[in-house]
# Entry
Amino acid sequence: MRNTYLWLLQLITGILIAVLLGVHMVLMHLDAILGFFGVDATKITSWESMIERSNQGIWAGLYIALLAVVLYHALNGLRNVILELTPSVRTERVVTRVIVAFGIVTFVFCSYVPIALLSA
Amino acid sequence: MRQIQPRRNYLGAVGWLWAGNYKVERYLYILHRITGLGILFFLLLHLIMTTVFRIQGQDVWEATMAILHNPWFKIGEYLVVVAFVYHALNGLRLILQELGFLMVRPAPPIYPYRDSLRRKRPWTIAMIAVVVILALVFFYDFIAGGW
# Structure
């Protein structure tokens, strides 16, 4: 039953990521086509543009929320790939714990940066 | 008495790359896994770039961006985009299929019937077509926007 809920969360986070990262990919990679429609996205990776976004709470919140959703989807997907090899219950537990620990450490470390940059 | 041997159809780890008797959907599944693991690898690099290097200030950030404007990294980024587009649209197809939205009207299984996989195949082909179109749109921008 627990794996069913994990899988349902995988579907929900998948849809969220498809929308949010879709916007991200269009802004980052379609600058020539966006310029045709009057949206300037050519300087989006410059320091000034990046810091301007980092100073706003809404962007920091979006980054952290996206981080949580993406980390869940990626690490649960990796867990599903590994568990498809049908390891023993013991190995399965070790795999789950390592992946959960890695996810928590990454989330804490990576969400510290947008919070620290709010006052940069 | 003649012993009937069970057919050996367990592909094991070989099934990660070779689909045996299965059809195109199984290869989409393999590609879904490869793109997923590839994006996971990119995500880790991306997180290092946007945390460890970003927190160190303007000079380090601009040096990192200069490295990332190398043509090889640009080609890599294009591959990540294509992998993302494929993974997203194939995932959407799998979600719709799992929740039962792509099921067509039931029909009696009288001989030249089409199985459920073949009845869903138009959606599969439409998904592949959209992936190809989006990959071409991103490729146009990749060329037109300068590397």
